[in-house]
Amino acid sequence: MANKLETIDVNLHYGDFHALKGIGLAIPDHSVTALIGPSGCGKSTYLRLFNRMNDLIPDVKITGKVLMDGEDIYQIKSSKIDHLRRTVGMVFQKPNPFPKSIFENVAYGLRVNGISDNSFIENQVEKTLRQAALWEEVKDKLKKSAFELSGGQQQRLCIARALAIEPTVILMDEPASALDPISTGKIEDLIFQLKDQFTIIIVTHNMQQAGRVSDYTGFFYLGHLIEFDKTKKIFTNPSKQETENYITGRFG
Amino acid sequence: MEFPESNERRKKLSQAIMFGLSRGISYGIVALLFLILFFIMKQGIGVISWEFLTAMPTDGMTKGGIWPAIVGTVYLVLGSMLFAFPVGVMAGIYVNEYAVAGPVKRFVKMMTNNLAGVPSIIFGLFGMALFVNQMGFGASILAGSLTLGLLALPIVIRTTEEALKSVDDTFRQASYALGGTKLYTIRKVVLPIALPNILTGLILAVGRVSGETAPILFTVAAYFLPKLPSSIMDQAMALPYHLYVISTSGTQIEASRPMAYGTALVLVVIVLIVNIAAALLRNYFGKKVKMN
Asked: Which pLDDT tens digit goes with each residue over B143-197?
């Protein structure tokens, strides 16, 4: 399989803080990669390299290469960052639907990028809500406020919102950590279905979740990538002692 | 281990005293407010009538009504908000969304806070110098509204800033992640979420503006006008100033005393109605964008 995303010797500083230390990693196309590690290890920061969300923080310095389909996304013109962000969808820890109707939440990404053909938008919203396994639950109340949905439904709506503009990569930052087990199960099923069409990176604190949904797992610790391998290998026979200690719960 | 019984008693007693004291004080403050309202109500209710609310003052302002003062205050509140609300919200957006952390932003914030501490009579003098004389508006509703608007600006700026600050950053990031520009994100996502709290700023500002006397003293307020203002370049009467005039400098202060209390009552009730209406509005919007 070709590598969709790749980082070569990436270092990231927040002011004086060295958050990512020489990270080299290649992520295959149409796969799910889990990033695990204790809080503050750099995994969320790493995730945000791929849609340049770290750029929004003042005093950030990034060196090294971040490649998507072979192109360094930190060498593109700043006018192309919007385009990059369109090809990379993002789902956050807490469900954060916009203060709009269910329909308008999904349509947001289309409208913001200048699409105004209503029948196209309607089709796309339905298609995306089906993709996010939410259509049956909301089809009769598309005009209702997104805040009327349950937390789990809101998170699937946020996934639908990200899918609507047809990205190729989806970044998920602990997407189920604020949800109950049943809603979490639905999100995990969804991730499993989506990997046929997308390259997914998911940050998680939940070892079982990493084991269930991902093909590859990377273990971060204190800004270093300690180990990256097939999830099965990491969880059954890790090569590094730190990895084993972490996944067996001896620290972290 | 044995713990001495006396210590337990002492703990309980000190708890009870502190708690009782702070409760007593907070109830006392509420009682004081009710006392003021009751006093004004008792003194003023006697003169309240349809005529009092809708007629012009007569007989050296000892009889008749206060209609022109009510109209003037409404115009001034509306005018000042038309100026202060958009300007204040835009300034708040700049400070919270655009300004880069550093000395410039700190300076702007500090000066905004200082502006809030400037005595209102200074605003009155400044308004007279700038709007009435320099810009040639004369004593007029326009000059008075702008002066009152200046007074209200820091309140609107500060509450807008706080309201925007309380909007979780992931809302902004989610919009950027979909290709949204900063302006689009602020318009479509951030402002709607912050709106209920921004409206709080408007409530506070309206309350403040409707009761101010000093800023309108030299910029708009008229001692007595035989007819209602017909344009924004006219002078106007206003409730707080009218109250001041008939309590201190009328021709027959004793005779117009009941009129003064009636005026005070109307002013208080108007402020109360504005506050309640704005609070209802805020609750309505608050429900629409309720966070989980």
From this structure: 999 999 999 999 999 999 999 999 999 999 999 999 888 999 999 999 999 988 8
CATH, residue B84: 1.10.3720.10
Task: Dump pLDDT digits (tens) for B33-82.
Answer: 899 999 999 988 888 888 888 888 877 667 778 899 999 999 999 999 99
Residue span of the structural domain in which B43 resides: 5-47
Tell whether B184 and B165 lie within a shared domain. Answer: yes
Look at residues A41, A35, A10, A66 and name the one whose alpha carbon lies nearest to residue A173.
A35
Are A158 and B100 within 8 A, CB to CB? no
Do residues B133 and B204 share a domain? yes
The residues near A49 (Cβ < 8 Å, ≥ 6 apart) are: A7, A10, A12, A20, A62, A66
CB B174 to CB A96 under 8 A? yes
Encoded tokens for A179: 């949800």
Residue A156 maps to a domain: no
- CB contacts of A88 in chain B (<8 Å) are 177
- Domains of chain B: total: 2
- State which residue of chain B sits closest to A169, comparing Cα positions: B177
Residues of A in contact with B290 (CB under 8 A): 147
Residues of chain B positioned with their CB less than 8 A from the CB of A100:
188, 192
Report yes or no: B166 at the A interface, CB cutoff 8 Å.
no
Could you give the 3-state DSSP secondary structure of residue B252?
coil
